[in-house]
Amino acid sequence: MKKTLLLFMLLMSVKSFAQVPSYVSKDSLKAWYPFNGNAKDESGNGNNGFDSLVTLTKDRFGDTSKAYDFTNKYSKISIPYSKSIGIDTINPITISFWFHSANNSFNSQRLFCIMDQTRNRDYEITYDGTKSAYQVDNYDSKGTLSLPSAKALSTKSWHHCVVIFYQSKNIVKGYIDCDYDTQSIFKFFKPVNPHLTIGNNPTVKNWAFIGQMDDLGIWDRALDSTEVLALYNSCVAINITSHPINQNVKNGKNAMFTVASSFSGATYQWQMDKGSGFTNITNGGQFSGATNDTLVISSLTSSNDGLKFRCMASSGSKCNDTSKVATLTVCPLIVTQPSNISAVSGKSAIIVSGSADINAKYQWQTDKGSGFVNLSNAGQYSGATDDTLKISSISSSNDGQKFRCIASSGSICKDTSKSVTLTVCPAITSQPSDQSVTETQSAMFIASSADVNASYQWQTDLGTGYANLSNAGQYSGVTNDTLTVSNTTLSNNNQNFRCIVKSGSSCIDTTTIAVLDVSVKNGINGNQRNHQGFAIYPNPANGQINVKIDASLIGSFYTVIDAGGRTIMNGKLSSVNSI
């Protein structure tokens, strides 16, 4: 039950100040009369006024039924005595209000009256229409003491008046329209059960105020000049405490500008300058948060480059501050990202990057395990400050090495490429060699890799480009290190073979090309082939053939057999050029 009661009291406390503007100090506030349709005290102290022959009218902002019009000598608002209002203490008393006089024909128009219950003495704040000035009066049985203001007031506008009674010091201080107006020695008395009257004197009807009044407040302490300024401006003094800073953002990304102020309830308005002056930004398109402390510009394009931004923070129509200007720079992106690369030990590798800015400058970096550092053109590396980096004479020490590129545009824009890895692939340690066989015989091609777990794929070119072989017909071992071509025929003559060797998922290498030579069974194949000092050409032939022999073969017997196996010629070799 106690918790429930406490919560209720807290809620009531919050609610009691709900109608008091943020610029009005709540410290020692005893009464606040905004005249928003009635004469109620909105401070939460319950010191409600009672209006008599006054009418609601427009306030100084032009809002309807937000001020009272005192139209005749009987118009007034009475506030009964209340100990909570603090008038009968020795503490300083501050009275603040807005007024607009409608009559300059007579003096002593009572704006505010503090009347002792004996009704023979009071303090008054009056308006002297003949002098266009306000004054503070002390009336008692011993006579009248008046303290006139030094500033003449126009009847064409509203004026703000603040009077501070320093009762224990016998001093009164006055402000008019926020200007410190006057201070003087003033005789005080301690009123007995005082009651208050706005716009009139409860005993003298001819001294009534003719005009409008609004926003009257009473404090049992002295307000300082800053609080008086806030009341006059009808807003809290505000300062930018954190300014937006220049932003350098990549094309296509989002930019964010942030501001902060000294007032937690501030309102914000961001502005932009495209080159012809600052104008307000509205939410829409690229922009969001135009009236918040954080402005977001989405999906940047090159057209946003160089735009200037600032923010106005306000706590009311007269209280605002403007931030410093911040510039948005839209930076070009790296449009060509490098890719992971695999290269065989002993060979070279090339890594490429590129920026949308054709004038960009590049710096390649490498990470060997202790973080990225800049490369220079030395040793293995060339193109370290170009868009293309070359790594020469690759060795196993380069395996797993990481690379990236920083592209710079101007003095402030930098973009970093993604990181890529260099994989050093095992070398082919044995290349296939040319093979010569007689038709119907088998030919065997062998390749090997430094990687014992390498995979193989043999290919052949039958005149239309290399294609993978499969284990069928003449071919076996097509995915092993050894390819066998069985039952060769003359159609296999001059057929080319190679092998694709893979290590892991990224290393691919290709062997050199090996040629299969198939000769006629029991004969010699080729346009001119040497066989133990014996050459026959052209071969094959449909007519005349020539035979050239080594001198050591003279006297030997020979037989010439055609493709069908028939003997078409035989005899004894008699000279180096025979037949």
Can you walk through the features of this model?
With 579 residues, the protein is mainly beta. It is 4% helix and 44% strand. The protein is built from 2 helices and 53 strands. The chain starts with a helix and ends with a strand. The model is unreliable at 1-15 and 523-530 (pLDDT under 50).
Low-confidence stretches: 1-15, 523-530
Helical proportion, percent range: under 10%
Global Rg: 52 Å
| Separate helix tally | 2
- The class by helix and strand makeup works out as mainly beta
Strand content: 35-45%
Largest sheet: 8 strands, antiparallel
Present the secondary structure layout.
Blueprint: H1 2-16, E1 29-33, E2 50-52, E3 54-57, E4 67-70, E5 76-79, E6 93-101, E7 109-115, E8 122-128, E9 133-140, E10 143-148, E11 159-166, E12 171-176, E13 179-185, E14 195-198, E15 211-219, H2 225-233, E16 240-242, E17 247-250, E18 255-258, E19 260-261, E20 267-273, E21 278-280, E22 287-288, E23 294-297, E24 308-314, E25 320-322, E26 326-331, E27 334-336, E28 341-344, E29 349-352, E30 354-355, E31 361-367, E32 372-374, E33 381-382, E34 388-391, E35 401-409, E36 413-416, E37 420-425, E38 428-430, E39 435-438, E40 443-446, E41 448-449, E42 455-461, E43 466-468, E44 475-476, E45 482-485, E46 495-503, E47 507-510, E48 514-519, E49 534-537, E50 546-549, E51 557-561, E52 567-572, E53 577-578
Parallel strand pairs: 17-26, 28-37, 39-48
Antiparallel strand pairs: 1-15, 2-5, 3-4, 4-15, 5-14, 6-11, 6-15, 7-8, 7-14, 8-9, 9-10, 11-12, 12-13, 16-19, 18-23, 20-21, 20-24, 22-23, 24-25, 24-26, 27-30, 29-34, 31-32, 31-35, 33-34, 35-36, 35-37, 38-41, 40-45, 42-43, 42-46, 44-45, 46-47, 46-48, 49-50, 50-53, 51-52
